[in-house]
Amino acid sequence: MDQSSVSADKPKTTKESRRALISSFLGSTVEYYDFLLYGSAAGLVFPYLFFSDKMDPTLGMVLSFVILLAGYVTRPIGGVLFGHFGDRFGRKNMLFITLMMMGLVSIGIGLMPTYDTIGVAAPLLLVLLRIVQGLAVGGEWAGATLMAAEHVQEKNRGLAASIAVTGGPTGSVLATLILGLFAGLPQEQFLSWGWRIPFLLSAALVVIGLYMRYRVSESPDFVEAQKSGQIHTGVPIVRVLTKYPMSSLYGILAAAGPLFMQSLLAIFMVPYVVESGAVDRQEALMMLTASSFVHIFAIPFFAGLSDRFGRRPVMLVGAGISIALVFPMFALFNSGSFWLIALAFMVGNPIIQASMYGPIGAFLAEKFETQDRYTGVSLTFQLGSLVGAGTAPLMATWLMNLGNGGGTSNIAWYFILLIVLAALSVYLSKETRNRAERTALRAEESIDDKVLGQ
């Protein structure tokens, strides 16, 4: 039988499946709380604390976004590293390590001295912590998604994988909500100590996540592959690049478009609407929090549709929705109206982003066989994240200042380009929903034909 998917008749206990889903969701939430908290602080705090006060504020913000990008650059490296050991020795232990790394980094950022205290060592230390953070997230996303997807029957794989994926917006809700509460402090107090508390609170979340990860069992798919002797002793990344070159490319491009929108809203648009004067810092963060909360439910909704109708149809319709709504979304952002800006966040996250992003976990997982899946999913998603999310703040800043008067229209056209490439990649990909069931059916038909022919 094709090992690219879970067999249709493989026993999956309800208790273990539930535990795996909860563990993946909580672990992913903690990871992305820490990772996205940095993104929120990059535009609101770091330019003022970790660079010389003689530096132009715009340059300080650009440098903060460059350091932000460093985390995205190291995410594929972390994905390949943890994917290698995850495909060789199992998913569970790797996820325990990534969560521990993430928690330690966030505590370190919360305790970091500023430029006024240690000078140029401050931004250098920030770069180092961001790199370690990127390595941890690089191994987290694929592992958490696979632990959820590989613990359930294939007919529910899209929805199960999306449970881990919703850790992203859940982490964003927590990050922006907690940071937003402290953002209401007077500017001096917020920059002095208020912004540090959300990072330090990460310790409590990590303890809960580690406890859940300790209790979950190893992936049934991986255990079965081990028993059947399908786990290779070679290098998984080599097999992925040689065995799945086009599948990997399609996965990268399919992820880049929706991930660009996610990063744009979380990192660039908050300071953008604050600087416009339409809303204050706390209001903008609360708008993002509200849209991220709805996003938590939108992702499994679109993932559930992909379980019923297929990954390709849902993602292609999502691409059409994204293209149709991106210009209206930016018009709302530029309206100067409190409620219309809040609506813009709602259009961007739960509708534009989720419509293509919801099925992405299952879409990527089903492209690779079990013994190569952790590496394959890590590589494709994290490279897509680098191309889409990692470059989003810098690209948006550059596009806004092209000098052609296009402003946010330039960003909209660039997003449309990414979505067109994503849609083309999805269209050229094979439909993988219920792939194992179809493979099993073909095998049974082949046996019946042989019996009848005797």
Shape: globular
Low-confidence stretches: 1-11, 436-452
Distance between the termini: 23 Å
Order of helices and strands: HHHHHHHHHHHHHHHHHHHHHH
Looking at the structure, the CATH topology is: Growth Hormone, Chain: A
SSE-based structural type? mainly alpha
Question: What percent of residues are in strands?
Answer: under 5%
Brief sketch in words of this structure:
With 454 residues, the chain is an all-alpha fold.
Characterization of the model:
The chain has 454 residues and is mainly α. The protein has a single domain (14-218, 233-448), classed as Growth Hormone, Chain: A. It has helices at residues 14-44, 46-49, 57-89, 92-110, 115-118, 121-149, 157-165, 167-183, 187-194, 196-200, 202-215, 220-227, 236-243, 245-275, 281-309, 311-333, 338-357, 360-365, 370-390, 392-400, 408-428, 435-453. Helix 1 (14-44) packs across helix 8 and helix 3 (57-89) runs antiparallel to helix 4 (92-110). The two termini are 23 Å apart. Mean pLDDT is 84; it is low at 1-11 and 436-452.
